[in-house]
Amino acid sequence: MTEEKLWYAVIYFAEALTAWQFFGSLFPSRIPFWKRCVLYGVAYAVAYWAFAVSIVPVNTLLFVVCNWGVLLLGYRIKWMRAAVHSLLLTGLVLSTEFLIAMLLGAFFRDFNKYQNDLVVLVLFSILSKLIFFFCTRLYVYIAKGKETEEPIPLPVIALLVLFCISSILVILFLFLLCLWVKTLPTFGGVLMICGGLGLLLVNILLFAGYQYLQRTNKNYRAFLLLQQKSQADEEYYTALQEQYDSQRVLIHDIHHHLEVIKEMTEKGDLSAAVQYVGDVEKLPALQKQIRYCTNSILNAIVVR
Questions:
Q1: Are 87 and 168 in contact, with CB atoms under 8 Å apart?
Q2: N or C: which end of the chain has fewer CB within 10 A?
């Protein structure tokens, strides 16, 4: 039906706007505003065009790829992190749609009702996209502003991607099962609704866990930097103390040499005094600093 196709276009437009505000709240943009508009338009137009195939796994995979491309081309983000956020967003879309589909299916006694009735489809899409939007705002609140470029260990990222893919596969399996059964008994419907709530909670917890790992890694790196700075400060002050002690020893030695020269001059032994002064000038501590290069810090390191 033409009305259904137009309404699905509205649904994809709403998802594009939600993704726009979600990605824009977390990552700095790479390209100008109008280029991002074109990028979102092309990506979600491709996703809408593929929706005509009506194969849920294919549509889901394409949704992941389109959002991944939008992140890589439109924002300053690494490819692995872009994959994580694309999977998180896809899991959130599927979990909200599954939850609303189960609630409406329990109410109308037909899980497929939204596919056959335009009014139910409108109700389904409005409720699911509103929950989707509010959940993305919750994600932004959990993230507490723009994400940093702090690297996260690859095994952690890989484990998070595995959890996201597992969550999406579970939702797809339940979706296909309900589409096949169509009508569920009351107890089965309640279980499916609880499962939908659980899957939505799992996706929220995955994002919260990702943000927690990111902050923990950032704090750990800051601790290491502070530790290195403290060690460098300790070595610097130790070097200053050694320099001060060396200066005190040198001053004491010079004072002793002056006393010796004074005694020699008072006795009239000028030749011995001149020879002693020459010997003192040859001492290593009184030699001029060797210059290997013009950089004073590098030169001091090379001399040392």
A1: yes
A2: C
